[in-house]
Design brief:
The complex is a heterodimer.
Chain A: H1 2-5, H2 16-37, H3 44-66, H4 74-100
Helix pairs in contact in A: 2-3
Chain B: H1 22-26, H2 31-59, H3 70-106, H4 114-136, H5 150-154, H6 159-186, H7 199-231, H8 244-278, H9 285-298, H10 314-326, H11 328-342, H12 351-374, H13 376-382, H14 386-416, H15 422-449, H16 463-493, E1 542-543, E2 549-550
Helix pairs in contact in B: 2-3, 2-4, 2-16, 3-6, 3-7, 3-8, 3-14, 4-6, 6-7, 7-8, 7-9, 8-11, 8-12, 8-14, 9-11, 11-12, 12-14, 12-15, 14-15, 15-16
The chains are: A mainly alpha, B mainly alpha.
């Protein structure tokens, strides 16, 4: 009944230093995101790649440290991965539409 | 096994008499009391949605729009959809029967997070009241699907308020899902291995997976519609640089699996009832258990079949069509196994079993007509017609609501400690079955002939089919009102139920009816497989209100 009472004896205590470091890293990544938006030239694809890479790095930091997944059981890892796997399903099947939409040109389309 | 049961006529402490103030209900963290709070609230919203359905059917009696204007008709069918889906069908079985039974069935004293459970009810009520507020201050006319750019740029109705209501209800749903997942993983009684779990629990586990992984997507998607509507942020409206098909992808990514959120818990109920009243093990237990998980997973891969004619790539359409056919396999596994369970069983034709048999028949029709719609070519003809309306009502009403009625009757003695009156309950099950088919069978024909959904003007030659449908709807309405009366009546005058009036297996039948606040005085230890009906479990005596013993078999 440990979980029901809210006292999990296996709670990992994370030093405040780690939280502050992660916070600092998130702020640095935020500055990088803003900076990347001002890159000269019309590198739309490159911009997207850079912005998404930074976003993934931020998300990983938040999930691992702020959400304690790094210190959790394998069952929690499984559920956290399931979330990302489902996100992947959403992206792949949606993009499957976008990438193949013009294979058969419809009337009125360029 | 600790068996803690009352003697006949003895009034013991139970969760119902544990406190009688209003606050004792509003601040309770007892999963059984929260289930009752949900029972009252979802019943209220079912009534609202039902009345709106009555208005729709009245309007469709004649080919002209003579009861309401086209604008008002749009609002009425939209609000019927919003109320029925978000406020009734999605929460009904998990939040009422699931909340009551999941801890009892796994041998726990409550859900893992009792306060989160209460919070989920408050979120549900907050979302419900906001949606109600939107209804009484003008309503919403976009259809329950909120398709942009109409919803984000053109509609002058209460789109924002309704979406905020749906958004909040989503969190209530997520809270329930998380609670079930953690409880089922972490709080099973000693000896209750995964393959000794009742199939009701497997179904609720699969449902919770869908809720937790899908609901956040629709929540954000609906919020993006509000962002486009309020801040003119171009996401879905082509005039603002957005893509309306993107909304449909994101919306149906949740909203198709949401159908399984509605019907999987009902399937869990069916497995319990069919086994008990056939006095047999569920045929192919492992297959039925894994088919719930398969439906949850494959159900996430089929959403594009809602978009065959809306501009989606035909190649994506082919993939989605194939995947949609796949989801029929686990559904069929369940149906065949339930029928195989009944085969050569000792059938006891009680009201819950009548509902179950209704479920099986209607779900098969609903499922098979779904295949018509999953086939690319026939869908071009049937898309957005009454064929679709009939199909999803066969799944949602014929499936979910009949499953809910079966479960409500089956566990009514456990929930209230009283038996419902069997004769009128059986009659009601037949009335609902007849009313349902009279309402929705003609709609298949109407749809095939070309009657589009969401219109209230139609050619005169279709009037007879519409009249049949409206007559059926009123019969169906009577069928849903009758239980309100006889179930309330049974609270005072129904025969007293012992712990196990059906002689059913499962931990919930080993405690008092109604159970004590903490369910079990000692943690139960499970030593046998589920549905071991051939071992023992004869129905016990049922005691009448005066304490005199009468055997009810």
């Amino acid at each position: 009944m440990a979980l029901a009472n809210g006292h999990d004896s296996h709670t990992h205590i994370v030093p405040i230093r780690v939280y502050l470091l992660v916070y600092a890293a998130l702020l640095v990544l935020l500055v990088l995101t803003v900076g990347a938006a001002y890159l000269p030239g019309r590198h739309t694809l490159l911009n997207n790649v850079i912005a998404l890479t930074i976003a993934i790095a931020k998300a990983v930091l938040v999930v691992l440290y702020f959400m304690h997944v790094r210190y959790s059981t394998r069952l929690t890892w499984l559920w956290a991965s399931a979330g990302f796997f489902w996100l992947l399903i959403m992206f792949i099947l949606t993009l499957g539409d976008y990438f193949t939409r013009h294979w058969v040109p419809a009337i009125g389309w360029e | 096994m600790s068996v803690t049961v009352a003697k006949p006529g003895e009034v013991r402490h139970n969760y119902l008499n544990a406190g009688d103030t209003v606050l004792s209900w509003l601040l309770t963290t007892d999963h059984k009391r929260i289930a009752i709070l949900y029972l009252v609230s979802v019943s209220f919203f079912f009534l609202v949605g039902g009345l709106l359905a009555g208005l729709i059917r009245l309007e469709l009696l004649t080919p002209q729009g003579d009861l309401m204007t086209s604008e008002n008709y749009n609002r009425v069918f939209t609000m019927h959809g919003v109320v029925m889906i978000f406020l009734f069908l999605i929460p009904v079985i998990p939040a009422v029967l699931g909340n009551f039974l999941v801890p009892l069935m796994v041998g726990a004293r409550d859900l893992a997070f009792p306060r989160l459970n209460l919070a989920s009810w408050y979120l549900y009520m907050a979302g419900g009241l906001i949606a109600t507020w939107a209804m009484v201050t003008g309503g919403v006319d976009t259809g329950w699907t909120f398709y942009p750019p109409y919803s984000s740029s053109y509609s002058t109705s209460q789109v924002t308020l309704t979406i905020i209501g749906a958004f909040i209800i989503g969190f209530s749903s997520i809270a329930t899902g998380i609670n079930f997942i953690v409880t089922i993983h972490k709080m099973r009684a000693p000896g209750l291995t995964w393959f000794r779990l009742p199939l009701f629990i497997w179904a609720h586990y699969a449902t919770s997976v869908i809720i937790v992984l899908g609901t956040p997507v629709v929540a954000i998607t609906l919020l993006l519609v509000v962002a486009e509507r309020v801040f003119r942020l171009g996401i879905f409206d082509p005039a603002l640089g957005g893509d309306p098909i993107l909304f449909q992808h994101l919306f149906w990514f949740y909203s198709h699996p949401a159908v399984y959120i509605m019907v999987l818990p009902a399937m869990g109920v069916i497995s319990e009832v069919v086994s008990c009243f056939s006095r047999k093990r569920v045929f192919g237990y492992h297959f039925v258990a894994f088919s719930s998980v398969a439906i949850a997973v494959i159900g996430f891969l089929v959403w594009g079949h809602h978009m065959f004619t809306t501009g989606q790539s035909v190649y994506a359409g082919m993939v989605f069509s194939l995947l949609s056919f796949l989801v029929a396999v686990p559904s069929a596994v369940k149906v065949f196994n339930w029928t195989a369970t009944m085969y050569k069983g000792t059938i006891d034709l009680r009201a819950p079993l009548l509902y179950v048999m209704g479920f099986i028949g209607l779900f098969v029709i609903g499922g098979l007509t779904g295949l018509f719609l999953a086939a690319l070519a026939t869908d071009v003809h049937l898309q957005d017609t009454y064929f679709v309306v009939a199909h999803f009502h066969y799944i949602m009403v014929g499936g979910t609501i009949l499953g809910y009625m079966a479960g409500l009757h089956f566990w009514w003695p456990k929930i209230t400690g009283r038996m419902y009156p069997e004769g009128i309950a059986k009659l009601t099950a037949l009335v609902i079955f007849a009313g349902f088919n009279l309402t929705f069978l003609p709609q298949f024909v109407l749809g095939f002939l070309g009657m589009p959904r969401r219109y209230h003007w139609y050619p005169e030659e279709w009037q007879m089919l519409h009249v049949m449908s409206t007559a059926g709807a009123f019969l169906l309405g009577i069928g849903f009102i009758l239980p309100v009366f006889y179930l309330l009546w049974s609270l005072r005058t129904g025969a007293l139920a012992g712990p196990n009036p059906w002689g059913a297996t499962g931990l919930e039948w080993k405690v008092d009816s109604p159970p004590i606040t903490h369910n079990f005085e000692q943690t139960p230890i499970v030593t046998e497989e589920p549905y071991a009906y051939d071992n023992h479990h004869e129905p016990e005596e049922v005691f009448s209100g005066t304490g005199a013993s009468t055997t009810k078999r």
